[in-house]
Amino acid sequence: MKVAITSTGNSLDSTIDQRFGRCAYFVIYDTETGGVEILPNPNRDAQEGAGPASVQLVASRDVRKIISGEFGMKIKSLLDSLRIQMVVYKEPEKTVQSVIDMLKK
Amino acid sequence: MKIAVASGKGGTGKTFVATNLFNVLSGRGEKVTLVDCDAEAPDDLLFFEAGKRDEFEVTHQVPVISKDACTWCGRCSSWCNYNAIFYVPTAKVIEVIENLCHGCGACSFACNSGAITEKPVVLGTVTSFTTSAGSPLIESRMRVNEMSPVRVIKAAIKEAGNEGTVILDAPPGTSCPFVQTVDTADYVVLVTEPTPFGLSDLRQSVETLKTMNKKCAVIINRADIGDNGVKDYIEEEKIPLLAEINYDPVIARCYSEGRLITSEDDKIAGLFASLADKIITEHGTGSNKW
Ligand code: SF4
Ligand code: SF4
């Protein structure tokens, strides 16, 4: 299963970006293969609609679960309609690697 | 001529200036119209006894997508500049996010499969009133949850026409609604306060107006409560100072109770009258009388 984690930078040592739609990077981790893909978020500076566009982006990668600090109301219903699980993880100090370690267990 | 009255983030007295300027001109029998362009929170009407004359809705066309006709080509979504079409073909999800839609029509144009039709969505209303002094007051009011008040504001300004003096009470900030409002004005009056916040707001407004090539002048409200920063700045920028209005608890109370100080205090009425004359004689067409 693929999991998207919002990240402030383009390495696994970066901390978790608390914003979903306007995060700097998406780290996509595959729990089966252990593979990691880091995508810069093209929507981070979008004037409007960054949230839905970001959902669209991760959904197109077949992500089933998203981990981020917060999600807007509209985002919740879009994710529900796609049956993507949303995990609110308000830990701005934690690194992406630490989340991946948790997923491994 | 159209005069926009604006003030950065707001709260520095633009509504105070706009309504009193309107009141003074109206009181001396000039043809004058007030347009409340602060469509997100219009409040000019509070200061007048006015009867409703007319009201219309401002709409735009948003797409309606038929999933049955859709061939999942993705053109509509990629043509949309506003991320308003949520498109995940793998999950067979395509959805219009109406409050992000600007009604530009690009998606209908892009669709080659006839899957997109359009329906009108109400953005807000424009209401015309006539005040007890016989002058028109036009209010723009955006519907809650809409993304942008711009279309409603533009419709209200259009409704005001071009005769006599039209005063536009501009929306706060310096973003799209402000720009679209002052863009229609011949002259912009910036109301500010002599404080660091006032100055930083004023700077932003002036910089925006410069890029638009708009003439402006400044009114300093509560002129006696702050520092000299604003004065130094406008001197440097060679922006005319139209008036300084000192802080007066009587003015403040009058305003907070929804009354017009220019109807109650001759001295202040005189100040507004000379202010109006300054703007109109210097920048108007001279054809402002009935
Ligand atoms: S009308 Fe324009 S803004 Fe609205 S969904 Fe279509 S392309 Fe996007
Ligand atoms: S352009 Fe038309 S056919 Fe293509 S995805 Fe959009 S609605 Fe479907």
Task: Walk me through the structure.
- The complex is a heterodimer of chains A (about 100) and B (about 290).
- By secondary structure, chain A is of the alpha/beta class.
- Chain A has a single domain, classed as Nucleotidyltransferase, domain 5.
- In chain A, about 30% of the residues lie in helices and about 25% in strands.
- Chain A has three helices and five strands.
- A five-stranded mixed β-sheet of chain A has the order 3-2-1-4-5, sandwiched between helices.
- Chain B is of the alpha/beta class.
- Chain B folds into two domains: about 1-50 and about 130-285, P-loop containing nucleotide triphosphate hydrolases (Rossmann fold, 3-Layer(aba) Sandwich), CATH 3.40.50.300; about 60-120, Alpha-Beta Plaits (2-Layer Sandwich), CATH 3.30.70.20.
- Chain B contains nine helices and eleven strands.
- In chain B, the strands form two sheets. In chain B, strands 3-6-7-2-8-1-9-10-11 form a nine-stranded mixed β-sheet, with helices on both faces. Chain B has a two-stranded antiparallel sheet with strand order 4-5.
- In chain B, strand 9, helix 6 and strand 10 (about 215-220) form a beta-alpha-beta unit.
- The interface of A and B includes residues 47, 48 and 52 of A.
- Bound molecules: iron/sulfur cluster (2 copies).
